Amino acid sequence: MKETSEFLKHKINELILKYGEVPPFWIYKPNSHPYSFLWRQGSGEVFTDCFIIWFEENCKTLEEKINYFKKYSPPPRWLATVVESLWDVEGWNDSDFDYSPYLKQLEELGFSGTSDYQKDLDDEKWLEFE
Asked: pLDDT at position 3, please?
């Protein structure tokens, strides 16, 4: 688990005041792509740290994690992030990783957009946001 500095505690509290809890990435930055540099520097990197800390502390069971993500209806391009958060897999770490069995599980759990995952992820419109 990531160590929580006073700075991150403060940022987490700001997010909770604004949203009621720390929201997922696509709520914090709706017009963003999961592989954007936004999440690796500056405010995006800080948000990522806050999200990880808050999520690990507040969504411990699989049921809690599923309910959290269902509440926020993830766009298709963010479904890999949901998969990685639910089942603790590291698909981002393996260029040949096959998300399809996990997307099928998401669909069975009632998540929508699984058939549009790759199309949304690869949509050229995201290039203009980089």
From this structure: 61
